[in-house]
Amino acid sequence: MGQNRTGGRQSSINIYKTPPKPLTPEEEEEQRFQERLEQYQRDQAEFNLTQREAELQNQRAGAEEIASGKFMLGGKAVSRKEINQYQQKSKQAAARVRADNPVDPFYMRAKQYIAQNEPPPRPQMPGESQEQYSARVQRYAGQQQNRARRTNQVYNQMKENALIRSIQQFRDDPSGYLMGGGMSGQRTKTIAPDELMNYLGKANQMFQLTGGEGNFIDNLLGRNPEGTVQKRVVTPLSRLLPRKRSADELADFEYSRFLKNNTITSSKGTRNITEKDKTKFLQSLLGRIPN
């Protein structure tokens, strides 16, 4: 009994075998968990293999870039990745420096003003000897020894001019100044309202301590009725330029303005300045410079 026969022969297959016991909900959950775990492990292994292949490919590419000498850093051949990392770190460091040391727009504008009015020597002129060109360069270098002092002079005058404009604007239209006065970006016509308020507060204290009478702001601007205070006016920065330009310095200035435009406009349209244009412009300056 209990044995099966197939075609008159004894069979090892038990057709009466009890079917598997159904899984409980907990067992089904455990089975699904194991299946997900196995699939995750297979995916992770495939991902790691892909990552490793990519790393090896990048290493080979980096080695080829170093061997080519295409990218140099401190006199040493490096890969593109290394040069990119260096540039990124440099940008981050520069950003931190700017954040820790905010730029004074007045000082930047003062430097620009000096640079615009004291341009570097123009290139060697057609027909000019090396000795003549070297002498021009040396004269310019000598003049630049006092450049920091002249920059500070311009800076101080710009701040004074901005303060005078700010006081005038605040006196004539207080609300307008507080709402729209001060610097915007790199503007240097007036000072920021909070800076002006701080200045006026201190100046008013001094005015009262010294027994000042009349309108406080008019007194600041030199408009008291008695006329005992010198009238304060905006001083043109051009008065701070050291002296009248020589013919050579005028030529340097004109050449600098020519390059600043960066383009030439004619009946044929507008195009960028070429080396031929520069040479032609230098030749046009020859007649204006005494031998």
Protein model, in words:
With 291 residues, the protein is mostly helical. The chain has a domain at 246-291. The protein has helices spanning 25-68, 80-100, 105-117, 130-143, 147-172, 174-180, 193-209, 216-220, 247-261, 275-285; strands at residues 4-6, 9-11, 71-73, 76-78, 263-266, 269-272. A two-stranded antiparallel ribbon has the order 1-2. Strands 3-4 form a two-stranded antiparallel sheet. Helix 9 (247-261) packs antiparallel against helix 10.
Question: What is the terminal-to-terminal distance?
Answer: 134 Å
Beta percentage is 5-15%
Number of helices: 10
Q: Give the strand tally.
A: 6
- What is the 3D shape? flat
Mean pLDDT: 78
Strand order of the largest sheet: 1-2
> Element order, helices and strands?
EEHEEHHHHHHHHEEH
Oligomer: single chain
- Detail the poorly predicted runs: 182-186
Classification by helices and strands: mainly alpha
Largest pleated sheet:
2 strands, antiparallel
User: What is the percent of helical residues?
Assistant: 55-70%
What is the radius of gyration computed over CA atoms, rounded to a whole number of angstroms? 40 Å
